[in-house]
Each structure stands twice: as C-alpha cells, then as structure tokens.
Amino acid sequence: MAPTHALDVIADALETTGAYRVLRQLRPFADADARPIEPTFVGLIVDTETTGIDHTHDTVIELGMIKFEYGASGRVYRVLDTLNQLHDPGRPIPPEITRLTGIGDADVAGQCIDDEAVMAMAADAAVVIAHNASFDRQMCETRWPVFAEKNWACSCHQVPWHAEGHEGLKLGYLLIDHGYFHKGHRAIDDCHALLALLAAPLKASGRLALACLLETARKPTVRVWATGSPIATKDVLKGRSYRWSGRRRCWYIDIEEERLDLERAFLCQEIYQREIHDFVADRITARDRFSVRTNPEI
Question: Which CATH class is domain 25-218?
C-alpha cells in the first residue's frame, strides 16, 4: 500500500478537479501545539448504546466518554481522558439493537461498567455534550447521579447546522459534509466523531462549532404552558409548534426567553381571547434542560 501522504496527494488531486469528493477516515484528535492563553474548562462528550429508548426500563449496554480541555473561545486544546465500557444488561439484547449497534449478547457477557470510574471522570466537567442530549442525559442520570446536576448541551439541536449549509443532522451526515467517515453506532467512535465536528469551524460563518453550541446552551429558555386552553384551539397550538404533555394534560412550547412577551400576546389574542393573569412559564437552564425532571412527557 502506498504511504498515507502519497494517498493524500492523490485524494487532493481528485478533489481539485471538481469532479470528485473524497472521504477520509477520521483520525484521532491531535492536541494543540500551543499552550492556552485564555481561561480553560473541562468538557465531556458522552454517547450511550442501550437496550431501548425508555430510561425507566432500558439499560445502557455501552458507554463512551471523551474528557477534553477547551477554551473560553470554544477552541478544543487537548484530550484529557477516554472511557469506553460494555455492560451486561442481564437479559438478551433485542435483535434490532444488535443490528443497529453491532453489540450482541456475547460481547457484553460478564461485562460491567465501572460506576466509580464514570463518576470520577465526570466530576469536574463544566459541560456534558451529547448529540441527542434529551436521550443520553436521561439514560445517564438514571444510573449515574453525577450527571443530574451537570450543565448539558445538545450538539444535534443547539448548533445551527441547517443555517450553516448542512441538510442532515445525523452525526454521520455532518461528518461526511466535513469530508470524513467513521465507524458509526459504537459509543466511543461516535464520541471521537463529535469531538472532531465541535473542534472544526462551521461551513458558512467560520465560527467554531463548540463556540456556537456553548453560546446557545448558556441561554435560558422558557417553557410556556397553555393551561386550560379550549379544545377547539388545539390545531392552532399545534400549528405554532406546541406539544402535548400527557403528564400535565396541557399544551406547551419551549421558546427563547426574549420571545416571552410575544408568546403571551399570542395566547391572549388567539387562544383565550382575553387578557390572562395566570400565565404559567418555567425558566429552564442548561442545568435542567433535557433532564428527566424537566421532561414534560412523563
């Protein structure tokens, strides 16, 4: 086989023609040469593979984590630690999960995730990042209490991928848009892929993806409840992206804090057709966002 640098020359030559796009295999993150000249923090990328999607009944069968140092600017400086462990759920893994993840009963037999190692690794993280935080946070904090009090950020929905020129939000699609491929659906491989995306500049704005993510995650959001809304207005609420909470038997929407007055006006004019004085709105920060305790569906 030709040396890697020779293959890179060939790949570059193909791409310069404009007739080819070349995908390169993702390589491990290379630590920055320069020492930080800005305040730095500890971040943690987390990915789980599970027996299903219900955090109350399903079990984590693989946990991947990358602990890294980043600056106030959003620049990633170095990888501090990694963890990837399998866990035997004590029952057969559903066939559809094995097809998706490649993890079978033989792979996890006798395996157990080291809970103390997980808790220690996450202890000093300023932020925990997952590509589907609403899923991974609930799976993690159910088993490891350290995750319940952490700030969380979702790289799938809190980075403006569409505005930056990406059509798909899946990790593999975003990686392809950056010219790379990886072995998807295994926890640590997805963590490495996400770290690469967060460390790279966005296509349109040139801003670091991690900087954009952190900026969005820091902003409080407000959950507005359309308490006691007339049944006849449900289609109007749905058309405005309100969702139904089975637990509270009420329609709700999550919005940016600065939109609160606008949303109040909408409810007064279009839903209640009167001034409302019992307006219910919950302020949500990164400490609670995506958590089991703020999940309106349960």
Answer: alpha beta
